[in-house]
Specification:
The protein has helices at 2-25, 54-60, 80-86, 104-117, 130-142, 148-157, 164-172; strands at 38-41, 44-47, 63-68, 90-93, 121-125. The protein is of the alpha/beta class. Strand 1 and strand 2 form a beta hairpin. The model is unreliable at 3-24 (pLDDT under 50).
Length: 174
Amino acid sequence: MIRSTMKFYLALWLAVCSVSAVFATDLPVELNGIQGLQHPSENLYTAGQPPPASFAVFAKEGVRHVINLRPPAETPDFNEAAIVTQENMAYYNIPISGAADLTRDNVMLLDNLLSKIGDEKVLLHCSSSNRVGALVALRAAWIDGAAAEEAIKVGQRHGLTKLQPKVEHLLTGQ
């Protein structure tokens, strides 16, 4: 019984690793060079700021929604909403300027939006993917109930870097 259970978990682990590898290597060459670009799950791309021409590539890949975490003041000469909607994708903005905006309200906004989007493909980005990873980590803990350590790992897989100390503080109070 124990041996068959171990085989089951080993097979499950290998299947998860295989799926993760497919997502990681399944990126079109036209998207090379986008800082922090990841494909952590079937319907989610995370990234730093994509250049304007890449939105057409994301649309070809089946992305139907773009969530931009950059405040408009960060890109005053770039009308991302117009480019995204021209490619027949929906555009959303949750302005996260930095650590002060890592709030439960903003995590709830992201969670509600992702719930509304459902199984459709989405690109979630900021300038480097750091804010993406921070919000995803907080969502993993505050919404999905992950332990702080696991939530940090989830955030790192989605781009969390410089905001990690703030996220750790929010999750542990230390």
